Amino acid sequence: MSNDVYVVGIDMIKFGRFPDTSLPKLAAQAVFGALDDAGVSIKDIQGLWCGNLMQANAMVGQQILQEIGQTGIGVVNCANACATGATAFRDAWMSIKAGIYDLVLAVGVEQMGKGLLGGPGGGKGIPKEGLLGSLTMPAVFAEAGMEHSRKYGTTFEQFAKVSVKNHHHSTLNPKAMYQIETPLEMVMGAEMISYPNTKLMCSVNVDGSAAAVLCSEKKARELGVMSRAVKIRASILTSDPWQERDLVMPDVNTCTRLAAKQAYEMAGVGPHDVNLVELHDCFATAELLHYENLGLCGDGEAGRMIDSGESALGGRVPVNCSGGLLSKGHPLGATGIANIYEVATHLRGEAGKRQVEGARIGMTHVIGLGSACAIHILEKPA
Amino acid sequence: MSEQSTQPKPHPVVPFLKIPDEGSPYLEAIKCGSCGAIYLADRMACGKCATRGGFAPLRLSNKGSIYSYCIVQRSFPGVEVPYISAIVDLEGGGTIKGNLIGAEPDPAKISFGMPVDVVFKDALGRKDREGNSYLSYFFQPRA
Q1: Which residue among A120, A130, A194 places its CB closest to the CB of B71?
Q2: Arithmetic mean of pLDDT, A67-88
Q3: Are A103 and A44 spatial neighbours (Cβ–Cβ below 8 Å)?
Q4: Which member of A126, A130, A247 has the closest CB to residue B75?
Q5: How far is CA A8 from its chain centroid?
Q6: What per-residue confidence (pLDDT) applies to A115?
């Protein structure tokens, strides 16, 4: 028997704003969905990894068990910026890979306010925002996008097309926060937040949760769930290696390239084998960088790739079929597992109107600024 | 007791801005003696080569060029917009981030590689809780 690890149950709630629901109750909804999808009970689960960023010191994983069943299993609460959910998933994967457990649960959950993310300043002295440039997330990712413009001439319009595409995809995803078409002129004409990112090119702050049941091959066969078991072909986590400008310009490229290289090696596949990708489109500018970082196109070709429709549903390698963070929404701790939910759903052939036909291999990618990059490569049930 | 009515010396906005008693303010980084990587603040070891210690002070140039930028139209409450947030590569090494002043916040008017000078001015009137003034640095298109 191989030591491969499978996703045998997975779910996410429809992302939205649920200020009156407690964080553990929000998570419990996705956990119930994942457990039911796997056909197992919380009493069968041997360990829980909980990803949550904003309340990282609140023992959220244990609070979830208090809602759904206090079985006494070990719980790890994990925070890793926007890679939080994927990190929880990966550590759950490692526990099975290590032969410690056969059936574990990973959950990601977040409740967000509205508004800008990033450092409003503070620390010693005086606030630095608007004095020493900007550290808001839209500005940081605008500057990363402009670096691409500098190198390759990428245009505002090309960045905006990412948002048009992802919003279109989300019209086919009932679990996305929004189901609205946003034509190019609407995206480009929306309120400018930090040029070249308009409001419609910024991810949506939403509340959400997603959960996955991970299983050893031995246990999956025992449970009789192999026909819907999605194989985890690679799980990689990296941090940002030193880069010349990283003191003032967070580098989301190098850690992604490093993770992609390792993930392809672990999975024994190449970029051309990948049939769909959920990547970290926290801002429209970021998506184009990651086409190249993940090897979906050559360096300098991302602008052409979005222009050609290759990354749209029906194209060569559809990206962010869920609507992405731009339209599905970005509940930080839940995002990494929600991305895996989307890819797994396609690989099971259960994605309905947005199904990528014949999808065999899918990839998920998240970036937590600071930085953490997590990549998973998944394979359809045999 | 002295009756001199000199202005109190402003505080530096960041520790790497140095305000000498005599002469002009300047920026000072540290440079790894082993691999040459430049940092704007103290480190236990070099992030690039992991050599412990061995850093030497490096006076940064007041001349540089725009590496990347964005135009901020919305920021946190109380922060005046628009402004240009710029990443500037300095001649002789080092990259710093700050506001580009004296340029229109219009992408058509800003070019990559545009030469800029580092200039030192009061920190937009911002004061700390004790009422102290601060000296900041800004970028200005080179005349």
Answers
A1: A194
A2: 98
A3: yes
A4: A130
A5: 19
A6: 74
Q: Is A376 a catalytic residue?
A: no
Integer CA distances (angstroms), A40 to A12, A81, A379, in order: 17, 30, 22
Average pLDDT of the residues of chain A: 96
Contacts of A147 in chain B (CB under 8 A): 67-68
Instruction: Establish if A320 belongs to a structural domain.
Output: no
Q: What is the ipTM of this complex?
A: 0.93
- What distance in Å separates residue B111's CA from the closest CA in chain A? 9
Cβ-in-10-Å burial (0-12, 13-18, 19+) of A191 comes to exposed
The distance from CA A246 to its chain's CA centroid, rounded to whole angstroms, is 23
A151 domain-assigned: no
Cβ contact, residue pair A150, B74, below 8 Å:
no
Task: Please tell me the distance in Å from A171's CA to the nearest CA on chain B.
Answer: 28
What are the structural domain ranges in chain B? 11-141
Q: Which domain holds residue A29?
A: 5-113+205-228
pTM, entire model: 0.96
User: Which positions of chain B have pLDDT values less than 50?
Assistant: 1-3
Whether A199 contacts B73, CB under 8 Å: no
Q: Which residue has the tokens 């050599």?
A: B51
Q: Which of A131, A134, A143 comes nearest B136 by C-beta? A: A131
Asked whether residue A276 is assigned to any structural domain, the reply reads: no
* A330 is a catalytic site residue: yes
Q: Which own/partner contact pairs does B37-42 have at CB distance under 8 Å and 24+ positions apart?
A: B37/A242, B38/B93, B38/B94, B39/A247, B40/A247, B40/A248, B40/B14, B40/B16, B40/B94, B40/B96, B41/B15, B41/B16
Number of domains in chain A: 1
Tell me what pLDDT residue A360 has: 98
For residue A253, which of A235, A237, A240 has the smallest C-alpha distance?
A240
The answer to whether residue A213 sits within a structural domain is yes
Coil, helix or strand at residue A158: helix
Residue A185 pLDDT exceeds 50 = yes
Chain B residues in contact with A196 (beta carbon < 8 A): 70, 107
Contacts of B80 in chain A (CB under 8 A): 130
Angle at A354 between CA A333 and CA A268, to 5 degrees: 65
Contact B71 A143 (CB under 8 A): no
